Automatic annotation (TrEMBL), chain A:
Descriptive protein name: Uncharacterized protein
Entry's transmembrane regions: 6-25, 60-79, 124-141, 161-182
Example of a GO cellular component annotation carried by this entry: plasma membrane
Keyword entries, A-Z: Cell inner membrane, Cell membrane, Membrane, Transmembrane, Transmembrane helix, Transport
Lineage: Bacteria, Pseudomonadati, Bacteroidota, Flavobacteriia, Flavobacteriales
Protein source organism: Flagellimonas pacifica
UniProt keyword Transport present: yes
A Pfam family assignment: Sulf_transp
InterPro entries given in the database record: Sulf_transp_TsuA/YedE
Automatic annotation (TrEMBL), chain B:
Keywords, alphabetical: Membrane, Transmembrane, Transmembrane helix
Record-given protein name: Uncharacterized protein
TM region(s), chain numbering: 38-57, 78-98, 104-131
Listed Pfam families: DUF6691 (PF20398)
Record lineage: Bacteria, Pseudomonadati, Bacteroidota, Flavobacteriia, Flavobacteriales
InterPro entries with a match to the protein in the record: DUF6691
């Protein structure tokens, strides 16, 4: 059972549990603020006030994130008999027509996340742009999926609702309007 | 001891992100195609339980494990930053197929190209910090 993909009705409640434990430890659930802490550690606070903070107060969250890396290693190497993601047939057909042959046969598209991407300038640029937008957008919006969609909405915050609506506008725009031009 | 707990929570969350397939690019694409309930089920059930739990914590003034008062800071009021920032985040989320948590999970899972995504996400964070005062909020 553990070795199979975990269904949503197990995963969702467990994500809530992670948030509740962090709150009960007097902290909060938010992954993207670690990206800002990393900027601070790299010395960004010398030039920019935004990063002038005592990163040691955020050390707990960095430790969480180190755990997330370790958890990814454990999940992929010891807890998965077969990491193929069984996406819907519709999605497979869509992705095949966009040129993603690995759809329905892998955890991530090999076109973007296989090691051959290092010799594929176009796809490398796409990953870099994607990452940049996630980092920039998360800080602009003051949070990401964990901070807004889970924590913020759980706390019935209107700003989080606006942000999550934004996440979906952006995501739908990318997948439905831009993907046919990009891929 | 607390440090050890944070690490354990992180490891658990990392396993959870991998095993729930929330860290899969394919699941994010499928979500934005409305082709499966999976991601909506994950976020929706986490949210349902989260709302109830936070209401209980607030109504009954439940103390933290260490006996401290729990204060959950409300998000700053605003509109523009949340909408524009959210849209930019969503564009990146759909393209890279990973939000910040899963980036770390996938790094651990051994997908090397995710390192490029993660580094550029850190760079994006930095550029926001530099431009912050020039942007509408």
């Amino acid at each position: 059972m553990v070795f199979q993909p975990w269904p949503w009705y197990v995963s969702g409640p467990l994500i809530a549990l992670v948030m509740i434990i962090l709150i009960m430890m007097g902290k909060r659930f938010g992954m993207s603020s670690n990206l800002a802490t990393i900027c601070t550690i790299c010395g960004a606070g010398k030039r920019t006030n935004f990063f002038k903070l005592d990163w040691k107060s955020q050390k707990w969250n960095l430790i969480v994130v180190v755990g997330v890396v370790i958890g990814g290693y454990i999940g992929a190497n010891f807890l998965s008999a077969d990491a193929t993601v069984a996406i819907s047939q519709n999605t497979v057909l869509d992705l095949n027509s966009l040129g993603f042959e690995s759809a329905g046969r892998a955890y991530l598209p090999s076109e973007l996340f296989g090691t051959n991407v290092f010799s594929d300038i176009k796809n490398m640029v796409l990953l870099i742009i994607g990452g940049f937008l996630v980092g920039f957008g998360a800080r602009y919006a003051g949070g990401c999926t964990s901070g807004h969609a889970i924590s913020g909405l759980s706390n019935l915050q209107l700003p989080s609702l606006i942000a999550v609506i934004g996440f979906f506008i952006g995501g739908l725009l990318m997948v439905h309007v831009l993907f046919p031009f990009i891929f | 001891m607390r440090t050890f707990f944070y690490l354990v929570i992180g490891v658990f969350f990392g396993i959870l992100l991998f095993k729930s397939e929330a860290a899969s690019w394919f699941r994010i694409y499928e979500m934005f195609q409305f082709d499966a309930f999976h991601m909506y089920g994950i976020i929706g059930s986490a949210l349902g339980i989260g709302i109830v739990a936070l209401q209980i914590i607030k109504r009954f003034n439940i103390k933290s494990f260490y006996g401290e008062t729990i204060s959950i800071t409300p998000k700053e009021k605003g509109f523009t930053r949340y909408l524009i920032g959210g849209i930019l985040f969503g564009l990146g989320w759909a393209l890279a197929g990973a939000c910040p948590g899963p980036m770390f999970t996938l790094l651990g899972a051994g997908f090397l190209p995710i390192a490029m995504v993660l580094i550029s996400a850190i760079l994006g964070t930095y550029v926001y910090g530099v431009l912050k005062d020039k942007l509408p909020h």
